[in-house]
Design goal:
The protein is mainly β. The protein has one domain (4-179). 5% of the residues lie in helices and 35% in strands. It is built from 1 helix and 14 strands. The protein has one helix at 171-179; strands at 4-7, 16-21, 30-31, 61-62, 75-76, 78-81, 92-98, 103-107, 118-120, 127-128, 132-140, 146-155, 160-163, 167-169. The strands form 4 sheets. It has a 6-stranded mixed beta sheet with strand order 4-8-7-11-12-14. It has a 3-stranded antiparallel beta sheet with strand order 1-2-3, with no helix packed on it. A 3-stranded mixed beta sheet has the order 9-6-13, with no helix packed on it. The longest helix is centred in the C-terminal third of the chain and has 9 residues, at 171-179. It starts with a strand and ends with a helix. 24% of the residues are buried.
């Protein structure tokens, strides 16, 4: 699990989520170099510098990776089916929001399956059946167009598969929606 810090000290007030890199002497680390603007990935989809910027969205708390490990009820994986293969880990990112926990889980880029044009939670993550979630998906294509999907109040079911309807939206629309979460 990588550690990131939010930095709002820039001209457009967007929160830049930068990975921490080990410091030379202690364990505190320093900010990774390089910045990006808008909702864009940094680095390749599979390396540890892959991250997205949540413009105007400053109240998310990231869910601990083992939050549901002691849950004794039934759990399941979830598949998130994209409209086509152009919404792949280089251009799209999916987040599961747990409103009652004020937390979010990122669906990892390494779980993308090109043949089924879908993401899943991977072999080591499962979520409680019956739990309520929201699914937020953001994308910025090479052509500069932004896409967004927001599905709220979804109840997790066994072997769940969710179609993600991506709609072209303005960056301002996406910032407003993320800021309202």
């Amino acid at each position: 699990m990588d550690l990131y810090f939010g930095d709002r000290n820039n001209n457009d007030s967007a929160v830049l989520w930068n990975p921490l890199v080990p410091s030379s002497g202690g364990g505190t680390g320093t900010a990774a170099t390089g910045t990006v603007t808008g909702i864009t990935p940094g680095g390749s989809a599979l390396d540890s510098s892959h991250y997205y910027i949540f413009d105007s969205c400053t109240d998310f708390l990231f869910l601990n990776c083992d939050k549901f490990s002691n849950y004794t009820g039934a759990k399941t994986n979830i598949h998130f089916v994209m409209p086509d293969t152009s919404f792949n880990p280089f251009y799209a990112q999916i987040f599961i929001v747990f409103p009652d926990l004020n937390s979010v889980v990122r669906v990892g880029p390494i779980t993308y399956e090109n043949a089924t044009k879908s993401f899943n939670l991977g072999p080591y993550v499962s979520l409680p059946i019956g739990y309520v979630m929201n699914v937020i998906t953001v994308s910025k294509k090479e052509n500069g167009k932004y896409y967004f999907s927001e599905q709220n109040g979804l109840t997790i079911t066994d072997a769940m598969s969710i179609d993600i309807p991506m709609t072209e939206r303005s960056l301002e629309y996406i910032k407003t929606r993320l800021g309202a979460l």
